[in-house]
Write a structure and sequence with these properties.
By secondary structure, the chain is of the alpha+beta class. It has four helices and ten strands. Helix content is 25%, strand content 23%. InterPro entries: DMAP1-bd, Gtb1-like, Man6P_isomerase_rcpt-bd_dom_sf, MRH_dom, PRKCSH.
């Protein structure tokens, strides 16, 4: 006689019935008439990705930007698609959870608060970087702010692999001056900005130099993350690069005074070359002398 295999349903029903009889009515035990959801390797342990604790590999930078945006600190906002749930905690981090009960469902940190991008004197977007590893790089998110009736995470996309873009709406940025940088600077930095504007107007500063000075101001204000320190030791130049065509060592054009001096020296050299060329041209047009008899 072959014994019929005992099913999980039968085992569950028998065990709970025995417990009910032996409890003497002190504990009400509900008889479960469904089989338990058996998972990996026959156990009923299932990994819910939402139950895992996410740990960022770096701490967020300090709050920086318009002070009225501090109202967003300590709050988090969700956006869900059919596959993923995104959570943005402004000035903290942004995470992604795959809505799946697969054992290897993704759940991770897309980025940690770093600072702003600034365009035309305006806070253009929030940068969340140093997220989970993604091959040889790390995940990052650029969050743009738009005016809205209430604060909400509108959408999240991945235009490039592991580089995400998100849109966040809030009534805190609806005023025309809500994201202007200049009013958020202290008096000293505002004066420096005024000075470089004057230098650019008077053609004393190139566009590249102007942008560099502005970035320095934004970094000192804490709006931009300071770049990683790099070695300031110059690489040795090849012997052929040690002098230029005039035989002089090349001059590093570090400021407007040096540029003016180099310009005057070049003008003198050009004038000398022109004079030599004119003398050569005059000599070549003179009639040749007949040979002596």
């Amino acid at each position: 006689m072959f014994l019929k295999p005992v099913t999980p349903l039968l085992c569950t029903t028998v065990i709970l019935a025995v417990l009910q009889l032996t409890s003497a009515g002190n504990v009400a035990v509900r008889i479960v008439r469904e089989t338990a959801p058996y998972g990996i390797f026959g156990s009923n342990f299932q990994l819910n990705p939402r139950d895992q604790v996410l740990v960022a590999k770096s701490k967020p930078e300090k709050f920086a930007g318009p002070s009225h945006l501090k109202r967003l600190l300590g709050k988090c906002f969700n956006f869900s698609t059919s596959d993923y749930r995104y959570t943005l905690c402004p000035f903290q981090n942004i995470t992604q959870v795959e809505d799946s009960y697969r054992w290897n469902a993704y759940k991770g940190v897309l980025g940690v608060w770093q600072g702003w991008t600034i365009t035309n004197g305006t806070f253009a977007s929030m940068i969340y970087a140093e997220g989970d590893s993604c091959g040889a790089s790390k995940r990052s998110v650029q969050v743009t702010l738009t005016c809205g009736n209430h604060s909400s995470l509108l959408n999240v996309s991945e235009p490039e692999r592991c580089k995400y873009a998100a849109a966040f709406a809030t009534p805190l940025v609806c005023r025309d001056d809500a994201l202007l940088v200049y009013p958020r600077l202290n008096a000293t930095l505002r004066q420096r900005w005024n000075d470089i504007e004057s230098q650019r107007f008077n053609d004393e500063l190139t566009q590249k130099g102007y942008e560099k000075e502005l970035n320095n101001i934004f970094q000192e204000a804490g709006f931009l993350k300071l770049p990683k320190e790099e070695s300031i030791v110059a690489k040795p130049q090849a012997a052929s690069d040690s002098t230029n065509d005039t035989g002089r060592a090349p001059t590093r054009l570090t400021d407007i005074a040096v540029c003016n001096a180099e310009y005057e020296q070049l003008r003198a050299e050009v004038a000398s070359l022109r004079m030599s060329l004119e003398m050569y041209q005059r000599s070549s047009t003179l009639p040749s002398m007949p040979p002596p008899s």
